[in-house]
């Protein structure tokens, strides 16, 4: 069973082998490192750029407008904030040219906390990303979705942000989440595609015979069906929400977990159907709580589904702080944890209209 970072690497391989990807680049993306999280090891079109986020995005825009199909990595999303002006240009080019110029690029970047990255390697980017029109924005919660969303991002004719929850990059998929074509033995897969330690100059990956598999951008997944509370979440928070729901089920509280997978466009029909069923909704993510993407979802739910609600919608998000602490206790106090998610679902379920 592949990990998420292996799934991303295999998707990038399929992209350069069959889907026209011409350049995969960014800081330490090419050999010998192959990405700080190993996401680009062994890829034929991977190359190293200078440490210049605006230059990376600017280069990707130029390559895309010149007819190539680039994938640009910002090594940590904390440094994508350096390139907001370039991201806006990538997002508005198709609109500004009245549809004459497509910008077929993918920006991938690791996001969020969970690896003790402290104030420079733990930020989230989802709320900021949704404020840049013209981009599609996806964030997977498991390896199979990571593979399928990356392939969909590659074939999209305009810019897509692929946000990688860094705390899940080493997590393996569960039964039923296999990537089509991967070997059943995870050790065999590792031997095939993971670069060895030490000298890698002569190493070449032996890619499995992978099949194409696409997850539609804008289509949510019901990660757990339920009838009492709707939980809208994505990325790293999906496993925690599932764990909290599993514990609450012992007390007779049945939570429905919606893995949005795509922040823009998002699956409003799936959200609407779930809220009409449960009449209670909790939004969970780890970006800072003020002007949070979950606040937008709550605003729309209140505007369009007000009379369906049996309790005030609730947001559980990261604290509005300048950064994330390095110490384990500080990091855990900064962003949602399973215990807090459980308490929030419990409170909503017990609220009497």
Task: Explain this structure.
The structure is a single chain. The chain has 353 residues and is an alpha/beta fold. The protein has two domains: 4-193, Thiamin diphosphate (ThDP)-binding fold, Pyr/PP domains (Rossmann fold, 3-Layer(aba) Sandwich); 221-350, Rossmann fold (3-Layer(aba) Sandwich). Helix content is 35%, strand content 16%. Strands 2-1-3-4-6-5-10 form a seven-stranded mixed beta sheet, with helices on both faces. It has a five-stranded mixed beta sheet with strand order 7-9-8-11-12, sandwiched between helices. β11 (281-288), α9 and β12 (314-318) form a beta-alpha-beta unit. α2 (53-65) packs parallel to α3 and α7 (237-249) crosses α11. The radius of gyration is 20 Å and the shape is globular. The N and C termini lie far apart (45 Å).
CATH first level of the largest domain: which class? Alpha Beta
Helix tally? 11
- Give the end-to-end Cα distance, rounded to a whole number of Å: 45 Å
Order of strands in the sheet with most strands: 2-1-3-4-6-5-10
What is the CATH topology of the largest domain? Rossmann fold
Radius of gyration, CA atoms, in whole angstroms: 20 Å
Given helix and strand content, the structural type is alpha/beta
Largest sheet: 7 strands, mixed
Along the chain, the helix and strand elements come as HEEHEHEHEHEHEEHEEHEHEHH
**Strand count:** 12
* CATH architecture call of the largest domain: 3-Layer(aba) Sandwich
- Unreliable stretches, pLDDT < 50, 5 or more residues? none
């Amino acid at each position: 069973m592949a990990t998420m970072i292996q799934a991303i690497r295999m998707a990038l391989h399929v992209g350069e082998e069959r889907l026209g990807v011409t350049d995969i680049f960014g800081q330490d993306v090419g050999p010998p490192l192959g990405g700080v999280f190993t996401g680009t090891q062994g890829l034929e079109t991977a190359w190293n750029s200078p440490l210049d986020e605006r230059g990376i995005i600017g280069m990707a825009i130029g390559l895309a407008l010149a007819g190539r199909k680039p994938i640009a990595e910002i090594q940590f999303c904390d440094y994508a904030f350096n390139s907001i002006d370039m991201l806006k240009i990538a997002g508005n080019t198709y609109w500004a040219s009245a549809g004459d110029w497509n910008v077929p690029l993918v920006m991938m970047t690791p996001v969020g906390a969970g690896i003790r990255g402290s104030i420079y390697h733990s930020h989230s980017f989802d709320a900021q990303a949704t404020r840049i029109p013209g981009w599609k924005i996806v964030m997977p919660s498991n390896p199979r979705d990571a593979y399928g969303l990356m392939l969909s991002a590659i074939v999209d004719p305009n810019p897509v942000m692929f946000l990688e929850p860094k705390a899940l990059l080493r997590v393996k998929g569960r039964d039923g989440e296999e990537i089509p074509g991967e070997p059943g033995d995870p050790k065999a897969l590792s031997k095939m595609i993971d670069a060895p330690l030490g000298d890698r100059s002569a190493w070449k990956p032996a890619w499995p015979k992978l099949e194409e598999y696409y997850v539609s951008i804008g289509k949510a997944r019901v990660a757990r069906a339920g009838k009492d509370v709707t939980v809208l979440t994505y990325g790293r928070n999906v496993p925690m929400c599932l764990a909290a729901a599993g514990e609450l089920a012992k007390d007779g509280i049945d939570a429905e977990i919606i893995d949005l997978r795509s922040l823009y466009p998002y699956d409003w029909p799936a959200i609407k159907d779930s809220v009409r069923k449960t009449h209670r909704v909790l939004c969970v993510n780890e970006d800072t709580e003020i002007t949070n993407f979950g606040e937008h979802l709550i605003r729309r739910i209140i505007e369009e589904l007000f009379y369906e609600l049996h309790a005030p919608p609730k947001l559980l998000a990261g604290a509005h702080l300048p950064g994330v602490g390095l110490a384990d206790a500080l990091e855990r106090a900064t962003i949602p944890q399973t215990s807090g998610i459980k308490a929030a679902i419990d409170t909503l379920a017990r609220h009497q209209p």
